[in-house]
Amino acid sequence: MKRYIKNIVFMVLIAGLFTACKKDDLETEKVMQIVINGYNGGVNALQMSIDTTQYDAATANGKYIIGAASGIAQNFAYTYRSEKKRMLTLTDMVTQKVVYSKELPVNAPKGLFNYIFLDGKELEVTPPSADATTNKLGFYIYYPASNEPFDIFLYRVDNSTGQEFREYLARGVMQGQWVYVNYNATADFGTKALLGSSSVYFTKAGTTDQWAFDDDQNKSTISGNSMFLPTTIDKGLVQPYFIKPMTSSQGLAKMFFYPDRQ
Question: What is the pTM of this model?
Fold first, then answer.
């Protein structure tokens, strides 16, 4: 009888230990939101890997493969169980050379990575620190066809009155270099609804109707809605943009991520 009781107790202890271990395994599983923004200006596609996980052509029908001469806008959930050093890498699929490698943040809900490859080298992205009193917008325009300065401004027309509204974001901008400006939204462009009916225009410096890129309005226009610009209630945001003017659609990469706004 005593032996039988001992066996029962032993079995209960083992079951409890198994349950505890299983519970611990479940509790240690974590999820990190991975966001990768930028532009691959190389001639070859890139394959992404995190630790031992490879996001190759067989994964989700190749949706994670970064094409040549194309924008980068990856946003997905990465699950893991234990804390250790993990690297995110981008590998040239032809040369098999690792072109980008960065460690994932430790015990963080999200990981933001920016990668721009232009003219055979990586373009450094070093945004300024946030300022609680204003927002900081950054622009890098890749347009080697011209070195003339240009202006960037918001524009919209009130459909009921025909009144025009214009708000400059930056003046005298040169292509091929980062420029950062302080920006606080005005009432004319202060809400998501107003931004949604606005456009961002690029014109030759000092003009409002001479288009900056190939004298083409389509190339020189971006939807205000697509840029997630700050509203009047926003402060302390830092939002760098990489822009490569194109004919069919703008090569716009938003080098930031605010999950409650995007």
Answer: 0.85
